[in-house]
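Sequence, please.
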């Protein structure tokens, strides 16, 4: 039995978690900028429960399962409620140290689950899901085939709040291209304000071979904003983002200007920092380009 179909992905903050690959690939697998699950062997499928049990047994026998578990791959929340409950319950039986479970989720998965099912998962330890918002601009969301628009994303975010599951939202600077740069940044800020996630990770788009966007870019149909335009987007994004109490990070290695802040308190400080960099227009204040060359997008 193969415990991991590779490559598999997890958020940087799950580096110390045990990764349980209960599904392979992503059930959506259409986002035009995404090259994560394009190999044949990563075609979406759900692992049989027997196999999942075997993996948990083997890993707990090796003492590998600690307090934190990340259920992979791309959107494990797509699993049927009964199956998810079965998996997490078995995990906890075999590894009583498990305190919390997290996973990636698509907006559609959350809407389909509904508040009651989310509450049931919360009670079993699901304390946070990671969602790729990417943009708040419906024109961009349509173009990149995200499968969810502004309103649905807000609705899903409200369900999470009601169920007590934290929301970690990722947004992508540059996703509107040069053409919709300002609209994308402004609408993304508005989406964050309306969704009010506990965590926001702003990443900068990287165009990767294997993603449909790569071909669009090669044909000249998509132009990536340059580094200062990306930072301008960050400024517009922050201007339009109001969070009740949220962590805002742009410290992912894809970014030119790393920021770590807690909103609302740090918002003005962050804006001052971004504006100073924009006013100076000095590349030496930015992270060097080679950082972006060596990383995975998530
Ligand atoms: S970005 Fe996420 S939802 Fe979209 S195809 Fe990639 S893994 Fe699936």
């Amino acid at each position: 039995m193969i415990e991991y179909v590779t490559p598999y992905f997890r958020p940087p903050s799950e580096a110390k978690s045990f990764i349980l690959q209960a599904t392979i690939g992503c059930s959506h697998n259409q986002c035009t900028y995404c090259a994560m699950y394009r190999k044949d062997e990563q075609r979406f499928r759900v692992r049989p429960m027997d196999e999942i049990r075997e993996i948990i047994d083997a890993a707990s026998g090796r003492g590998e399962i600690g307090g934190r578990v990340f259920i992979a791959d791309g959107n494990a929340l797509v699993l049927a409620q009964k199956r998810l409950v079965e998996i997490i319950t078995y995990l906890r039986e075999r590894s009583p140290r498990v305190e919390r479970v997290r996973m990636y989720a698509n907006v559609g998965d959350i809407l389909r689950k509904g508040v009651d099912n989310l509450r049931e998962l919360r009670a079993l330890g699901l304390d946070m899901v990671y969602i790729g918002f990417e943009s708040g601009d419906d024109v961009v969301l349509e173009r990149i085939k995200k499968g969810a628009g502004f309103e649905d994303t807000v609705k899903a975010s409200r369900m999470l709040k009601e169920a007590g599951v934290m929301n970690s939202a990722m947004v992508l600077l540059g996703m509107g291209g040069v053409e919709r740069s300002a609209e994308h940044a402004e609408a993304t800020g508005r989406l964050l304000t309306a969704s009010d996630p506990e965590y926001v990770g702003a990443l900068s788009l990287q165009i990767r071979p294997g993603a449909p966007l790569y071909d669009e870019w090669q044909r000249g149909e998509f132009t990536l904003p340059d580094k200062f335009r990306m930072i301008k987007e960050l400024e517009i994004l922050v201007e339009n983002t109001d969070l009740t109490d949220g962590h805002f990070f742009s410290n992912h290695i894809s970014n030119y200007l790393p920021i770590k802040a807690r909103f609302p308190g740090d918002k003005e400080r962050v804006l001052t920092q971004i504006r100073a960099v924009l006013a100076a227009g000095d590349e030496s204040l930015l992270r060097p380009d080679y950082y972006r060359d060596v990383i995975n997008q998530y």
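Residues 228 and 282 are 9 Å apart (CA to CA).
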